[in-house]
């Protein structure tokens, strides 16, 4: 078992070596051009229509979300870049840059050169992303973290087909009650924790725990809701997409603090274009060593987890059993990321201690 751990971690470490650019001036792609105020989105009256099928508008949801929650994030650290919500817009930027928001069916020009800000409702990646952009946004509105509790939001249906997407707070709550509950709990936790007397470590643990519970429920819902859209992709891309969803379980177990810096390190080795049928990682000529390596690692994780009949994830989770061990887990990931030479033996003594103290 220990051998597997070592291999897994060395794989993780090796990824960090060389980073692709997924930020602009240290912020998510086109962040500065996305409207940062509700008033810009408002088209007159008390009902605001948002169009998540336009990249800048979807990014705008994130800007408003990050800005509105900053006041509750003091426990994350002194910098405004340390909120875990940054992981979401950075991810959207990677999806744009890697061509994952275009219409994979080719039926429309959405997302192509002619219409670069268009997000296609036929894209599996764009579909999954709805559950980690529009959904948390609407939950934040419901908890009055965004707006005054009176403004109403209507989500614009995609041009292609509205089928399968909920378009308002009411319809999303009806269609996905558990999902909305998880995200509402996250925003309640933010508010409750910010006024409580507990330590910053405990605050971080509670906020991040609620955040990852929301994310995991989102990915769970998205996996089934967006499933049909996978048929437009090559089998290597489908495999990567499935593994990518699964990898969130590992990251979630540590209550990973997806600040700007931390997210960049984890996102930059992801493949910079959609994979094609003949792509065979780790030997894809036009992708970097790091991207090939990341794909290889995802695949390795899948094979190992199946070989161990699902226990790799169980082991990982069992080491992350308390707020203290998760804090250590996060530090461990950071050490590994920032200092690839961080000795495997040091890592092991810490991990052993963590499992024993559970
Ligand atoms: C937040 O606090 C309110 C009021 O005390 C309570 O009703 C609610 O259950 C709490 N929510 C969470 C997620 O802690
Ligand atoms: C893992 O590999 C199997 C067999 O290659 C494949 O069918 C399955 O989709 C993969 N799992 C994920 C999550 O990609
Ligand atoms: C993030 O990384 C940049 C560049 O390496 C560094 O200057 C900055 O201090 C880091 N921010 C935090 C909050 O650690």
UniProtKB/TrEMBL annotation:
Keywords, in A-Z order: Glycoprotein, Secreted, Signal
Subcellular location: Secreted
Keyword field contains Signal: yes
A Pfam family per the record: Leg1
Domain of life of the organism encoding this protein: Eukaryota
Main location: secreted
Family: Belongs to the LEG1 family.
PANTHER family: LEG1, PROTEIN LEG1 HOMOLOG
Name of this chain's protein: Protein LEG1 homolog
């Amino acid at each position: 078992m220990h051998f597997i751990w070592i291999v897994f971690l060395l794989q993780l470490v090796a990824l960090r070596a060389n980073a692709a650019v997924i930020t602009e001036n240290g912020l998510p792609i086109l962040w500065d051009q996305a409207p940062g105020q509700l008033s810009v989105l408002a088209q007159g009256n008390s009902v605001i229509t948002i169009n998540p099928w336009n990249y800048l508008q979807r990014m705008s949801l994130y800007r408003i979300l990050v800005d509105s929650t900053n006041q509750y994030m003091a426990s994350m650290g002194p910098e405004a870049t340390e909120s875990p919500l940054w992981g979401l817009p950075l991810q959207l930027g990677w999806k744009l840059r890697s061509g994952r928001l275009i219409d994979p069916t080719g039926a429309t020009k959405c997302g192509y050169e002619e219409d670069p800000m268009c997000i296609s409702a036929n894209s599996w990646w764009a579909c999954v992303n709805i559950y980690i952009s529009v959904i948390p946004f609407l939950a934040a509105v419901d908890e009055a973290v965004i707006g005054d509790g009176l403004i109403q939001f209507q989500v614009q249906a995609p041009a292609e087909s509205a089928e399968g997407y909920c378009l308002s707070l009411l319809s999303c709550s009806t269609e996905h009650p558990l999902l909305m509950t998880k995200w509402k709990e996250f925003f309640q936790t933010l508010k409750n924790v910010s006024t409580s007397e507990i330590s910053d470590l405990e605050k971080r643990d509670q906020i991040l725990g609620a955040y990852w519970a929301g994310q995991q429920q989102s990915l769970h819902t998205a996996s089934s809701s967006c499933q049909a859209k996978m048929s437009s992709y090559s089998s290597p891309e489908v495999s990567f997409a499935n593994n990518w969803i699964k990898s969130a379980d590992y990251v979630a177990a540590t209550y990973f603090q997806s600040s700007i810096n931390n997210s960049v390190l984890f996102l930059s080795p992801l493949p910079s274009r959609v994979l094609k049928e003949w792509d065979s990682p780790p030997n894809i000529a036009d992708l970097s060593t790091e991207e090939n390596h990341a794909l290889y690692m995802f695949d390795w994780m899948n094979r190992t987890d199946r070989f161990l009949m699902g226990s790799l994830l169980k082991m990982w989770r069992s080491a992350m059993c308390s707020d203290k061990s998760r804090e250590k887990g996060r530090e461990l990931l950071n050490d590994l990321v920032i200092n690839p030479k961080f000795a495997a033996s040091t890592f092991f003594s810490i991990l052993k201690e963590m499992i024993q103290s559970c």
